[in-house]
Structures are given as C-alpha cells and as structure tokens.
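Would you be willing to look carefully at the protein I have copied below?

:::
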Amino acid sequence: MGKRVPTIGLPIVVSVAAITTSFYTVASEGEALVKRFGTVVAQQPPGLHWEFPFWIDRTYFVSTQMVLKEEFGFRTLRADQQTTYDQQDYPDESLMLTGDLNVIDVDWVVQYHIRDPNRFGHRIRYPEEPIRDVERRKSSNRLRRSPIQQLCNQFLKPYIQPRVGQ
C-alpha cells in the first residue's frame, strides 16, 4: 500500500506542474517572443496564451506600445510630480569637444519605440547598448563640426529672453 501512493502521486504532481508552466499572459502594452530551444517560434499579441510546459518554450515580453528613453549625462531616479535626479555626474557621456576645441557638457534624452520585437529582442543580448552607442557617436560628430558660438546661437537662442530697455 505504501508503494502505491508515490506511484499515483507522481503523475498528479507532473500534471499540475505541466499545467502551471503552460499558460502565460501578455500585457496590453507589448508583445511576447516565444523561443523554443533558442529559436523564435512565435510572436504573440496581448492576451492569454499557451506554450509547451517545463520551460521548453521561453517567453520574453517586449514593450511595443510605450515610448522608451535613454538618458545621457544624467539619470532620473523617480519621475513623479516632483522629479528626482541622480546627483552623480556622467562625464564620459556628456563631455564633448566642439569644432573650435572647446569642451562642453551636454545632457540629452533619446526617445524611441520598438516596431519589430523580433529584431529588438532576439538578435542582440543588450538591445539598449547599440542605441546608446549610435546616439553618442552621432551627437559627438554633430558637435565636433561646429564652433561653440554657432552651437550657442542654434540651441540656446530660443531659450534666452531679451531684456527690455537694453
């Protein structure tokens, strides 16, 4: 009698484990990539879906409806009614050389959204790194071609208020 209980219990445990590892939900702001042994086999829209149990299929969520951002020269710690920024400076990202050999400290933000989850989440391990590398190089090249006076006139002029009476 004692040997019979584990024999009956094992299929029940395996069945429960198979059921609990077979279903997943994709949130409304994105899509899911389903990989089977490392190969993408499906791209699922939001909703409840089924996959092979016991982690044969792996599901990776990719946010396709949200606007994502990368910050250069600063970091946002908390974006609330009162935004909090990191006090640490990031000179390796923000210090750049202008065309007339002046060094300027530039902070900027790049916003983007993901069109193709397969290309974003499958082909590279850390997808944010190429975005950061390309944007840093683009900005550096753009600033390197211009003297500082031209940059000040181009970027700061809309923000400078003329003083009345001078």
The mean pLDDT is 83. Residues 68-156 form one domain.
